[in-house]
Amino acid sequence: MAFDIEMIKGVYSRMAERVDAARKVVGKPLTLSEKILYNHLWDGNPTTAFTRGKDYVDFAPDRIACQDATAQMALLQFMQAGKSKVAVPTTVHCDHLIQAKDGAAADLRQANSVSSEVFNFLESVSNKYGIGFWKPGAGIIHQVVLENYAFPGGMMIGTDSHTVNAGGLGMVAIGVGGADAVDVMAGMAWELKFPKLIGVKLTGKLSGWTAPKDVILKVAEILTVKGGTGAIVEYFGPGATAMSCTGKGTICNMGAEIGATTSTFGYDESMERYLRSTERADVADAANKVKEYLTADPEVYANPEQYFDQVIEINLSELNPLLNGPFTPDLSTPAGKEMGEKAKANDWPIVVEWGLIGSCTNSSYEDLSRASSIAQQAIDKGVKMKAELGINPGSEQVRYTAERDGILEVFEKLDAKIFTNACGPCIGQWARYSDPKNAPKNSIVHSFNRNFAKRADGNPNTHAFVASPELTAAIAIAGRLDFNPMTDKLINEEGEEVMFDEPTGWELPPKGFEVKDNGYIEPEADGSHVQVIVDPKSERLQLLTPFTPIGDDIKGAKLLIKAFGKCTTDHISMAGPWLRFRGHLDNISNNCLIGAVNAYNQQTNFVKNQLTGEYGGVPDVQRQYKKEGIKTIVVGDHNYGEGSSREHAAMEPRHLGVAAVIVKSFARIHETNLKKQGMLGLTFANESDYDLIQEDDTFNFLDLNEFAPDKQLTLEVVHANGSKDVIKLNHTYNEAQIAWYKAGSALNLIAAENA
Length: 755
Ligand code: SF4
Description:
- With 755 residues, this protein is of the alpha/beta class.
- Helix content is 31%, strand content 17%.
- A hairpin with a 7-residue loop joins β12 and β13 (332-334).
């Protein structure tokens, strides 16, 4: 059911030929990352050596995974492609829309009631188009993927940044925006800039209180939150092979926190053990036959400096348990005295109020068993819990097995709250306060990945520190940020001094994994009869209608906004409370560009309506232009549309009637998203022309009927006093993308081809 062994065998069967061909064209031994990339070229056998960090390359991923928040718009778009089935194996996972409040059973009931229309929609679309559906409570997307779908040497994309978690099982797994996922679902190639490569050599061995989490916390300290940008991080060395597969997953997971494209490890015995333990012996057998292709060539690891763009070496035997934070995952401090001093100097609350264990980062059986060994010691040694403890298991399979093996009972004896197998407190879905904005300053420790302000509980005053599950448990029991379990004593209920022994645990359940209902729903073989129902009165979901082509006659267009300075996709389509409307294009369009700064008055969401001369919010003013049938343009500064790849930032202006976005420069993904939505994304040939644009300007495109690759477009800018400037605009549209523009969107074109 869950995984497709024939697909995996197909990937392996072509590996030798393609990797050998790649080695020839590259002219030197290959890293694992290169082997996987070259084996997934859209065009088949490699004939060119790509330049890392420069060439854009088309790939053919093996799988797609979507989570419930991002899947809504992705699937609404896919429905427009006119396909009867997704082109590559795809799964949808309901995990983000579940609050953590009263405990698993009550919280799941509540989520199923509050978000039923979204879950029902996702389930019916999945059923119709051959998509595997994991219902609410089944688990967190990345843990479920690791348990069921990830395989060594595979390539997957997912509409979530922590898709990279699957690198723990030797994949190249990359988080993408919904638009990219839709392309691949519809049978198109997926484009990626050929990544740079960072090698991390792990020597020594983890022991005692150090855990895989400490490896990535250390890497984050070294590389910072930006150091991995545009690169795949490939881990190798004896320290890597000695680590569990789920531990490797933890390290790859938090590669997102250093901005890495993804991270991966070579195939080894820990992966084989994990595959066999999760009932995928056939994948392990198939992988064993192509072992040498599932790790780098031996020359690479012998002389990594010659093959990677950057090499880092970490001796695991010298690594200490770390706490990273608050407010950023790269601020690293060794547990204990040093943390105490830093907390004092920075006025971070020393008392820890909560410890949270779980999330997609650290919710494996091994994580829970090691943390429970500390909890068990607290019980055995008579130590009272000082902070509160919350656990969210990564999947129903992990939860069921951990319950069977008495692990959850240990936590429960310490009054821990067991939350749903879902994201919960990791994504601001922790109903900790009734009024989070005004909640008090406090510290928490968690084993999650992100810790920026408000991430867990919406309270800007919560100082969140990231640590391994075992250290999180120890600090929650001690209730102090400066607690060092290796040296510090606690006073038990008898008034005696006691110390923790080192954590212990099982890499994999000794009695094997077990689960009654894993929460998976297989789609029907032929879903053509399945009705996808969306209530037309729904606030949260809206079926899309194809965009009408903008055409080649744009005359008399008005300026909607000239954005000043940084304008990220978050300024264009804000997150926070708007996430609720992700599946409803018209409703979410009420946040369109409300975060962009108006260059004429330095205010946000306050632009001139040229029809009335009055000022109003961007979406309101734009809706009035649309009503009058007037096209508009948006002008922007450098790197317009940087940040998350969310497609809403392109769909909203398109939906509201913006025809063109003209900027000094684009963030590439956003530029592509504009193209996909059938809009004009253009740049000033002369950057200083940005300054020519005035608040009351009207625009005429003079030669859009000659729109062609590598040919500038000409724009006449008519100022309020009647004077005119004629300026040149550059673009990067190729023939295919111009066809998208002419069709109204890329999906319109695909639908027309399928009709
Ligand atoms: Fe994202 Fe947290 Fe959910 Fe992981 S657990 S997928 S990081 S929200």
